């Protein structure tokens, strides 16, 4: 992750973005549904806290057939708008992406969950790192 961060462009919000791969697809528009794969890590120690990628779960020895049967490794479907129910830094990254793009995003805590811990998984005031792939859209 550090290699990606060293190449990232810092935005005014403090979010840092690096395009790992540039797709040749269209940019989503308000009202589209987008389909994404993501990996989320704590920036402080690189611990994986969430993903919907089966290969990552296998690599971390956290794969579950039950999770696969429930569709947890399917692309996440999100209505594309400024009102997306996602942390601000994640939304900012998605707003910059086209279909086929794969980005690294460093999200400072104030653009993530801030002072709100997320159970035992994400401590309060945690900076986060994501790999996000925008794989498809539908209108």
Summarize the model shown.
The protein is an alpha+beta fold and 139 residues long. The protein is built from four helices and seven strands. Strands 1, 2, 3, 4, 5, 6 and 7 form a seven-stranded antiparallel β-sheet that branches.
Salient structural properties:
Chitinase A, domain 3, alpha+beta, 31% strand, seven-stranded antiparallel sheet, 139 residues
Strand content: 25-35%
Biggest sheet, in brief? 7 strands, antiparallel
Measured distance between first and last alpha carbons: 33 Å
- Radius of gyration over all CA atoms, rounded: 15 Å
How do the SSEs run, as a string of H and E? HEEEEHHEHEE
What structural class do you assign from the helix and strand content?
A: alpha+beta
CATH class of one domain: Alpha Beta
Number of strands: 7
Q: Can you put this structure into words, describing what you see?
A:
With 139 residues, this protein is an alpha+beta fold. The chain has a domain at 2-37 and 75-121 and 133-138: Roll (Chitinase A, domain 3). Helix content is 18%, strand content 31%. The protein contains four helices and seven strands. It has helices at residues 2-7, 54-59, 65-69, 88-95, and strands spanning 9-10, 16-21, 33-42, 48-51, 76-79, 102-107, 128-138. Strands 1, 2, 3, 4, 5, 6 and 7 form a seven-stranded antiparallel β-sheet that branches. A hairpin with a 5-residue loop joins strand 1 (9-10) and strand 2 (16-21). The longest helix is centred in the middle third of the chain and has 8 residues, at 88-95. It starts with a helix and ends with a strand.
